[in-house]
Amino acid sequence: MPKIIIDGIDFEAQEGWTILDVAKFLGIEIPTLCYHEGLSPWGGCRLCLVEIHEGENTKLVTSCTYPLQEGLVVRTATKRVVWARNLILELMIAQCPTSKVLQDLAAKMGLERVRFKPKWEDCIYCGLCVRICEEQMMAKAIGFVDRGNKLKITTPFDKASEECRRCGACLYICPACTLRCEGPEPENVLCGRCYNELQPTCLDFYDNYTCWMGLKGECGTCIREKPEEKQEV
Amino acid sequence: MNRINSPEELEELRKAIIQKRVFERPCITVCSGTGCHAYGCEKVTKAFLDEVNRKNLREKVHIRTTGCHGFCEQGPIVVIHPEGIFYRRVKVEDVQEIVSETIIAKRVIDRLLYVDSNTGKKVMYEKDVPFYKKQQRIIFGNNGLIDPKNIDDYLAVGGYKALSKVLSGLTPEGTIDIIKQSGLRGRGGAGFPTGRKWELVRKQKGDGKHIICNADEGDPGAYMDRSLLEGNPHSVIEGMIIGAYAIGAKSGWVYVRKEYPLAVENIQIAIDQAREYGLLSKDILGSGCNFNIRIVKGAGAFVAGEETALMFSIEGKRGVPRQRPPFPAQKGLWGEPTNINNVETWANVPKIIEKGSDWFASIGTKTSKGTKIFSLVGKVRNTGLVEVPMGTTLQEVVFDIGGGAPDGKKVKAVHIGGPSGGCIPQELFHLPVDYESLTGAGAIMGSGGMIVMDEDTCMVDIAKYFANFLQDESCGKCVPCREGTQRMFQILADITEGKGKEEDLQLLEELGNVIKATSLCGLGQTAPNGVLSSIKYFKDEYFAHIRDKKCPAGVCKPLIKYTIDAEKCIGCGLCKKNCPADATVGELKEPHSIIQDRCIKCGICRDVCKCDAVTIS
Q1: Looking at chain A, which terminus has fewer C-beta neighbours within 10 angstroms, N or C?
Q2: How many domains does chain A have?
Q3: B581, B597 in Cβ contact below 8 A?
């Protein structure tokens, strides 16, 4: 059983665990996107990066795929990690600003700006749908096609697949299919930042009673005060 | 062919082959490497055969097609042995004269000799050509002597001697020790010590071990692995058999691109011939060692040269890299321990075994041993493949061997290591080529592509070219590489179109550093090198594009303007005649001018103008 140090905590891990497994066990939060408990790790989104080793030889690796070795030293939230995660998320949001999952992550990680031109694509190629179709639904109806800037996920030869049972697992797991709330400025690459587990729809105005966060618009989501009431007074 | 059952039988066969060749009949060797093929060496070879048959000299003259001689600039190359007379740019029309003059009358044809561009003197023998003088061709040396399609040729120059030495007297561990002591490092680019890699695989448990020869060479402008497989495939096979014995592997794989038809053909022929002699079979040379090699043809994805992607590709899956560890040495092909080395690394192995680790370690620098083959291309006079000891300076490679830039232009930089590599400016040409100093300067050794650039090359444009290559060749699995390379290309494209902003440079650098630090595989981890190194050394060119909206080298079309100097123009009308867009106007014998709205900036007017009247601004 490998003994490791993670964020200063000595820990004896189970055989076969990854860094992410340990972090989850200890309650250390590491953002993930293409990772799913029920599927094989992929290591594509790179959000779960952590810094391993000490001194000059530190390295950024994805915690979801990295197997534990004896004596491994892991730090999950160094400056370098946060810097890299933020830029990667920035790249992803610029690719698909409509995804609620990405916008939530951005709000949580405090991403303030997106310096790239938005592409407004529908897919972020995290591969979750491909893996759930193959590993849980045993269908292998969809897969990656082509590479690089022409990469896409589709059925063989773009034709309706005989293997597909229309189970909808791909839709269920897709982080890009859940659209963000449009808010008052849907053309903004970053949404209005009202990250909350419950996430009711935001209004385009507020008053003391209608702002569900009780913030009176401090979050910047709604743009103006309720105009009608003022006029009545 | 009879099966060879022991080292003694191999030596007997070698003696018999050499004896058969002892009587001195002239031998015409025609280079049939990639470069010479493009020049039409096949026709030349056929013409020689016809001519020799016509003159009834079939029994007296030997004609041999050999592997690449390296001096591709001067192809097709013909060398007449035993004298070693070196003819370059030989055409079908010259064949008759060569046979009647040089072969029969023993007279040298002056006009086909190579002219030393520095001294203006004609050079008669291959060994005296300055291009070869500074080289040390231990891997490539035999290329010009043997017919790659004939195993007897390889045996005649001492082939498979190293194999019989290993099988008859060395233990696997002893073999690994020799490779370790020699200091050989992987020639694929990363430079991992080969002996240590072998030892790691050796120590793994299990019978089903594999070795792979990585011949998925995909850098634009690089073709040394191709030339080795085409020109001397048996040296690679011999290296692999020795490796298999040392590691304890039973199966070997050669992963070669399908775009290299001649390499595939030659290595296949070589494997078949080695099999017939029993060198690739059960109980090789009576030692009890079993080994077989299969060829897998890659579909031409650049990323499939990455070892984990390559193994997936062999397994028949999508060529996409995966997380290491587990390393291939632990879990490789089909989950079994696998050793993967580059073509050139394998070709080094027999030489080291034959001549000893001390000999090999005496060549090169403290940390990088042996020689390295570079493909010297771009704006350089003598393009071709050069093999130099590690530690040779860039100055020597580019100027002494390469002859500098053509037309008296100034060499600006050299781009080393293909798309993953970086550029090194002329001021740093004193740097020795070895793994450490190249990495320190922001480039990488890579597989050895060396692209020379002169003052007419725009560094931003080059960075854009490689970014475009990478955004297309990234497998797309991980975000920083897929999205990052696309964004880099986009920003660079904006800069070359005059739409760049000052902040773009900072963003490029930040983006580059993140891609480097976070990408999944070697492709992404080295992808920003080209951009980062060009920003590091040629920042002023970027500023010229961004601030002044000008391209100093006159390459980026949206930033340049073609004009005709009315004083120089003699009104010959050549530019007008050749302009594809009807943008050049003017009467005969009157100064012409260019209508800017119509001009598509193809540059044809400048190329055809005889009085240098067309200028770029």
Answers
A1: C
A2: 3
A3: no
